[in-house]
Amino acid sequence: MKLRILDYLKDVKEYNGVALSAKFQCTCGSNKFEFSHTGKQTKGILSPFIIKKKGQLVLKATCPNCRSSFIVYDSTKDGSNISDKSSSYEFMPFTSKSLPNNLSVVIKYNYFPEKFKTGEFYSNEFENCFIYIIDENGKEGKALIEE
Hints:
Layout lengths: L8 E7 L3 E6 L9 E4 L2 E2 L8 E2 L6 E5 L6 E6 L17 E2 L11 E6 L6 E2 L2 E2 L5 E7 L5 E7 L1
Antiparallel strand pairs: 1-2, 2-9, 3-6, 3-8, 4-5, 6-7, 9-12, 10-11, 12-13
């Protein structure tokens, strides 16, 4: 299965056929997004800002320019550990006093080599998904999610 969010990734970098890293970019060209989720929000000090709630997490990105949105990660559908838990899409906005509402992020996937690509496309059967916030200096900062 093709990686569902491939159309929203730019600057894709492969690592030894077992990992990839990319930044988000909307089809309108914006690289900043508002995020909402079905999980539990933490303070992000020793853990990611968003973690699973009742064993389930869905993360949605919305472009503040054109208002288009897409599901970034759904723990019931994405990765190799598909869950049979039903997805409830009652989204809560991600907010933080220390961060702006519109965030640039980098997403990283780890794969088993045999699942890395399906044909010319990256697979949606990844082992881990990490999303890190890009700080004002353009550096990778705190984790939004680590799944």
